[in-house]
Task: structure prediction
Amino acid sequence: MNDVLPAQQGLWRYFEETVASVVTSYGYRQIRTPILEHTGLFLRGIGEVTDIVEKEMYSFTDALNGEQLTLRPESTAGVVRAVIEHHLLREGPQRLWYQGPMFRHERPQRGRYRQFHQVGLEALGFEGPDIDAELMLLCARLWDELGLHNLHLEINSLGQSEERITHRQALIEYLSAHESSLDDDAKRRLHSNPLRILDSKNPAMQSLIEDAPKLDRFLGDASRAHFEGLQAMLRRRGLAFTINPRLVRGLDYYNLSVFEWVSTSTDKAPLTVCGGGRYDGLIETLGGKSAPGCGFAIGVERILDLLQAVLPEQHAVCDVYVVHHAPQSHLAAIDLAEQLRDHGLDVLLHCGGGSFKSQFRRADASGAAYAVVLGEDEIAQGQATIKDLRQASASQAQVPMVEAAHYILEHGFGVKH
Ligand code: HAM
Result:
């Protein structure tokens, strides 16, 4: 679990503001659901034989009333619960988004934390592949706005549950015939969740996985048409993708289209930064009237790690730093700082004492474009000295105190934003 320190806030804010602007341009509205939900919601929603439910949930009994609660490991189940509880689908289909912390008790490693953040979108009540395509196009637009170019889209179709059952049978038969080549994890999953075996990263099992029966052979006409419809829309918009028949996702609620965006930068191992798909049965499973759904979630820490590499460092915390002859000048300095803020400037007022020299050192470190100086002489004359901190020549001007803000704004310097 990470502390997000002040130096990282610029990056987080830039990402959050870009997300908010892109999702709004597609008509998605924000929803905020609780971080704690009843444990049963995740057992039913995510599936009892998934990694998340089997070994990664922070679950506990509420000592005050005996309720079984869990810190949310993801947000799709909670959003669907809220949509059912508040009858949102009665108003028509919903395009929703959320952001916030999620919790999974995983083994920490690069890009894998126990508290991490997601930005997620859920589109509820839309049946066709057009909404699947919309979600993928929205992601592509977001990467573009952020200036991230090394992300690749992988898609697959998981078909419908009857199709998966037939495939599962074929898979179990195939894997049982090769049981001696399975690792312990795979043996454990052989009958509970054989599909997840295909997701194994164990090099010793790759050729076995390669030759395993593929789900696409078991898809019916409607599932095929949905998948082909999606591909046609992506091609129409020139969005490059790869069909990855081994893409199965780690949550049980998916059917038909699933997708992941994988980072492909050369200096680091590939990492999935975003994953999602359709979940047409989830609303009914969680007690609502049957309706289709599709969504995805972005791992914020993983995206910020990539973003950091392409963004110039920003560390300015203010536009103006007020240097003054403390403590005699406190009253005048407070007046001046408030007056500058009245004009929309971000101002750091030097607090406490200290020589002019040490105050100027702080002014430089703050990244401010200007220092406004109130020395003894200035105060006696009702003047302020304005120093440009960004120019090597250190140009400066003396103006009446009441005109300081106008002077700074007129000289149109590049403020920190
Ligand atoms: P997920 O694939 O479990 O899907 O998570 C989505 C993304 O969250 C991952 O691709 C990854 O970037 C990030 N993530 C997951 N676990 C961690 C972790 N321990 N540390 C850092 N980042 C992590 C879901 O959560 C689904 N609810 C997505 C969805 C929404 N499907 C439909 N609607």
